[in-house]
Amino acid sequence: MVENENNIITRASLIQPDDLLICVSLEGKTMAVIAAAKEAKNNGVNVIGVTSKYNSDL
Questions:
Q1: How far is residue 15's CA from residue 21's CA, in Å, rounded to a whole number?
Q2: In a 10 Å sphere around its CB, with 0-12 CB exposed, 13-18 middle and 19+ buried, how is residue 49 labelled?
């Protein structure tokens, strides 16, 4: 689990395609979480986003 916004994108770039990244954001608008999800997705990682909003950016 990564709670420090400064480390989240770095950690996302280190996970492998056979890993799963679960991103949690109340409204799905936290830019660091969105950037980490995109970085992981670009590296072939499966990503699950959990938010309280149906049409969030995440």
A1: 8
A2: middle
What does pTM read for this prediction?
Answer: 0.81
Question: Per the structure block, which two tokens stand in for 58?
Answer: 């995440």
pLDDT digits (tens, 9 = 90+) for 3-58: 777 777 777 778 899 999 999 999 999 898 999 899 899 999 999 999 999 899 99
Q: What is the DSSP string of 12-34?
A: HHH--TTSEEEEE-SSS--HHHH
Q: Are 12 and 37 in contact (CB under 8 A)?
A: yes
Structure-token pair, residue 43: 């590296």
